[in-house]
Amino acid sequence: MKVAIITGANAGVGFGLVQHLLQKDESMTIVMACRNLSRANHARGLLLEEFPQANIDVEIVDVGNIASVFQFCENIKKKYQQINYLFCNAGILSALGINWKLTISMLLTDPVGLIERADATIQAVGEINDDGMGRVFAANVFGHYAMMRSFEPLLSNSKDGRVVWTSSLTADGSCFDINDWQGIKSLTPYESSKWACDLISVACHDRFQKENLPISSFTTSPGVVASNIGDLPYWVTELRKLLHYLMRFVGVTSQNISGYRGAVADAFVALTPLSSLNTTLRYLAATDRWGTSFVEEHPLDIDISTAKELIRKCELAYQAHRHKLP
Ligand SMILES: NC(=O)c1ccc[n+]([C@@H]2O[C@H](COP(=O)([O-])OP(=O)(O)OC[C@H]3O[C@@H](n4cnc5c(N)ncnc54)[C@H](OP(=O)(O)O)[C@@H]3O)[C@@H](O)[C@H]2O)c1
Which domain holds residue 134? Predict the structure, then answer.
């Protein structure tokens, strides 16, 4: 029986992904890796109403705290002999507010950019977590890197282990500076962290191949989903939804709006035979004007030396934290 671990499965894209996986295979064991027990149990209850026979486990983890990630990994290793899928989905965008001047100007000059990117969101700069790491990088990237490293033996046991990194269509090489790999000085730490996911995915896939491990790594984007990310005021999210539907109707394919549609690329890379997939692409969830989902493939313009340097830095940090364990 397959086992899928999904971080941030209680809401948005993660919740939609669980629905996709169980629709295809209700015998799959789902591990909802969430930070808040009551939100996770509430979501689990909703999923069990839809899939009464499903085997859904809740495990608590704060992906932005390395001790919590290591504890989570130990709990999983005690319970499961194999992992088929690790979905690195949980994520944060640390928003301070909205740049209304830019919002209005983009609305008039670049409405698609306004609705697809976070340019008009003022992001917190220089945030550090309790482990001394860039806060957004720690949650979006490093916690998942540590999970992936800890789970390599279990992923290998499945004979076709797949790690799926949730990136974003807003991320590209211009957002990332290897000299500020944790995005601490960046004005766009969110986009920087998402490009870091892409770099890690490609470089780790290469390493798995070289080490003959039966593990693959993929990167996906949910397009635009009207979720809780960025903690925007409720009325802003609702107002934006009108714009999302309008954009979708005029043919902007990124406007998935619901977490379920946003999860279609994650489900695709999990359920498609390996021989039909390409780890150098980013798989994008997309929607036609009537709300019918499909998956787009976008080539990733990865600088492999930067990618290797990033995993070298992550590995050093991972080993340093492991050695601090009691
Ligand atoms: N929405 C979009 O348009 C969009 C676009 C591009 C990429 N993405 C990416 O898609 C992924 C899912 O986002 P979403 O849109 O579904 O947002 P969401 O509704 O806010 O869901 C994010 C999930 O991550 C969890 N999470 C956040 N910080 C965590 C932590 N430290 N430890 C454990 N779990 C944590 C949240 O838990 P709580 O419910 O407890 O807060 C929630 O379950 C993210 O990686 C995001 O960057 C989203």
Answer: 3-323
User: The domain spanning residue 290 has which CATH number?
Assistant: 3.40.50.720
Mean pLDDT (whole number) for 187-212:
97
- Number of folded domains that form the chain: 1
- pLDDT of 228 reads 85
Buried b (16+ CB within 10 A) or exposed e, 221-254: bbbbbbbebbebeeeebeebeebbeebbeeebbb
The band of 161, judged by pLDDT with boundaries at 50, 70 and 90, is: very high
| Ligand 1 probe mutation, 5, 32, 35, 37, most atoms within 8 A of CB | 35
Site to probe by mutation for ligand 1, drawn from 228, 241, 252, 258 as the one with most ligand atoms within 8 Å of Cβ, is 228
* pTM for this prediction: 0.97
Ligand 1: centre distance to CA 8 (Å): 6
Determine how β-strand 293-299 pairs with β-strand 121-123. unpaired
